[in-house]
Amino acid sequence: MQCPKCHAPMHTYNRNGVQIEQCSGCRGIFLDYGELEALTRLESQWSQPAPPPPPAPQAYPAPSAPAWGAPHGGHHGGHYGGHHHKSFGHMLFSS
Amino acid sequence: MPADAAVLHRLTAKVTATAHPTGATCACPAPATQTLTHRPDATVVRHTNTVAKAHAPGTDPTELTLRLTTAARLPDILLAPLATIPAALEDRLVTFWPYGIPVNPDDPDAAPWEAAATLLAHLHRTPLPTTSRFLLPPMRGPRKAARAIARLRAALDTTCTPAAPPVLAAWCALPAWARAEAPMTGGSTTGGPTTLCHGDLHLGQLVRHPAPHGPWRLIDVDDLGPGVPAWDLARPAAWYACGLLPPDEWARFLEAYRTAEGPAVPRTGDPWPALDIPARALTVQTAALALVKALAADRPLDEVEQALVDACARMSSASPELTNGFPK
């Protein structure tokens, strides 16, 4: 199967019985009908104790941020107030 | 006098004596002496143009000397020490440096991202002489991360918090080398890394020398050594991934590193396969230290600290295999 966005070949993963196609070019992910729900269900069974709900995987994540990044981190980062947040200002300068 | 006050007192005397080697009475305009850092693992005192640092208790003198020698060899990248042999001050090792102007913490918008990235790229491209390759101890980034987790586990002996499990789970999912439980690999046929790394990059590790308008130089050689160069990019990468560092600043940093032909990431294309593991490790390390601080102060996490913990929680649903490569 070819990526509908960049036309590079897509590779198939099996994650806990759920088939996922990931593009070898832009690294976007394709989910079949119901697979997102199946993944969400699996993750919520797995994670403990009561973590925040897993983020909805974007069908085609921006290639420039990791999958575990803040939901809008790759696109509109700095939404915690950037440098001007005192806590982050301190973090910029500490080990 | 308590032990930490005694260190500060002795170091102040030492830096003043070093700044005036002939024994002349100090006539520097007041306030000539300034405490720059005073923590359990480091005390730094300045007297006009001379800075003295008392390194962490237990610092190995041979390893520190090798790191100082490396810095002295690279004066265009690292601030050169005034002497390459550490002095002993009771149970602490002390090194001496020229004073440089740091980044103003009140004006992080002026952060020299391009200079930081370019210095790192030059450091990473420095060929390690064969002797240094075998003698210089490895970059200590993973060990620092492991120490942060050890501090969190110690704090959890007496208290608990729902924020800890996702941080510890994200830590356990990292490969052994990133947890300092196995050597770093890559770069040479003998298996050891050959890229010289800083090991603890943040904005406090840059100074202008000579002050105030000289070029930027990297400081703090305590973690310097051969290692995985992406570790040096991983703190800004982690801040960006957690939604803390604005994308344009991350882009400036990354682009400058690539322009200077740094080897940690491919020149073009997606840098995240190379950055993923170190950026996860730095996120976990920073989250662990934030939790330790919050637990000690018996206060809730602020939103920045919570953003780090949330990123750790998301790591369990984004395995390194999925973000870091493709099925064979």
Automatic annotation (TrEMBL), chain A:
Native source organism of the sequence: Streptomyces brasiliensis
Name it: Transcription factor zinc-finger domain-containing protein
Region listing for Disordered, in residue ranges: 42-82
InterPro entries linked: TF_Znf (IPR027392)
Where is the sequence biased in composition, kind Pro residues? 49-64
The UniProt record lists the Transcription factor zinc-finger domain at 2-40
List, as start-end ranges, the regions of compositional bias called Basic residues: 73-82
